[in-house]
TrEMBL record:
Keywords: Hydrolase, Protease. It comes from the Bacteria. GO terms for molecular function: peptidase activity. It holds the Pfam family Peptidase_C1_2. One of its GO terms (biological process) is proteolysis. This is Cysteine protease.
Length: 307
């Protein structure tokens, strides 16, 4: 199993894509010998502030939301930078981001100028999430800006998003039709078997994979730490496509895949690091079988070069 930072709890928020992609980056750097632990709230706060400005200037549109997809996190790192977890840790009790989204929309409706809005938004975010740290990062004797720190842990071209659906040609990068693909990110479309092989190769070579997919089915249980589809079934490309088109397979959740193990029957299981806290039999981890992966994966993000 790959090295990881502690399992976190996203609380009342839709920030699984932030937690999972940051966990993927952290494990990647830890496997390279770095010591790194990144703040989810830093990204969430700055993204909310940006949306509040856009909501105000756009006369109430678009809606303020923290829903997103894993590739968006890499874009936001290039925009806002990154902050170590210890510099901007999760406040206890956790901020309720669902409530915070609504409060920010109310704030934009009552503001009379951009400067007034900015002050009110900053005050609300300070109170709910925590006062922002200094705009410098000190790490191993070096000083970074948040942007240069982000680039040191995750280059813009370091990761690639992959998917597998037949309504687009294989071998092309496509803007996958997901409600949460708000920035129109591109995904390389691959045959299902090729996608699974890429995931396996990445994990076996010591590189984590950010997984995004469906957890609305009966096979997923956080309480039991499992994500299983009957191993006797044949999960084909055709079946997978049918479930997606019938909206039975939906884009629900993100986790970081951090290893491959075998159960007592010798069947392959993928170890997923979740972000719902540690209150399950495996300290917050989920064990996912290959059929679950084949059926319920919407997309993955992994390092492009597995050197």
């Amino acid at each position: 199993m790959l090295k990881t930072t502690p399992v976190k709890d996203q609380g009342q928020s839709a920030l699984c894509w932030v937690y999972a992609m940051l966990a993927t980056i952290e494990s990647e750097r830890l496997m390279q010998g770095d010591s790194i632990h990144l703040s989810p709230d830093y990204i969430a706060r700055l993204y909310l502030a940006q949306q509040a400005r856009s909501h105000y200037l756009g006369h109430g549109r678009p809606a303020i939301t923290l829903r997103g997809t894993a590739p968006m996190l890499i874009r936001l790192l290039q925009t806002y930078g990154a902050m170590p977890y210890d510099s901007y840790p999760e406040r206890q009790p956790r901020a309720n981001y669902n409530v915070l989204e609504r409060k920010l929309q109310q704030t934009t409706r009552h503001a009379t100028s951009l400067s007034q809005l900015q002050q009110r938004v900053d005050n609300l975010l300070d109170e709910s999430v925590g006062v922002m740290p200094a705009d410098q990062v000190y790490m191993l004797g070096a000083t970074y800006t948040p942007l240069s720190f982000a680039n040191s842990v995750c280059r813009a071209d370091e990761y690639q998003a992959l998917t597998s659906f037949t309504h687009h040609p294989f071998g092309r990068s496509i803007a996958l039709e997901l409600p949460d693909n708000r920035m129109g990110d591109l995904f390389l479309n691959l045959p299902l078997d090729t996608l699974i092989n890429r995931i396996d190769r990445s994990l076996r070579n010591g590189h984590p994979v950010c997984w995004e997919g469906d957890i609305s089915n009966d096979g997923f249980s956080f309480a039991q730490g499992k994500a299983l589809v009957n191993p006797r079934l044949h999960i084909s490309q055709t079946l997978r496509q049918h479930l997606f088109e019938q909206r039975q397979t939906t884009d629900d959740h993100c986790m970081a895949l951090i290893g491959i193990v075998r159960n007592r029957k010798g069947r392959k299981l993928y170890v997923a690091k979740n972000s719902w806290g540690t209150n399950n039999p495996f300290g917050g981890l989920i064990y996912m079988n290959e059929n679950y992966l084949r059926q319920n994966t919407i997309c993955v993000v992994m390092r492009q070069k597995e050197d």
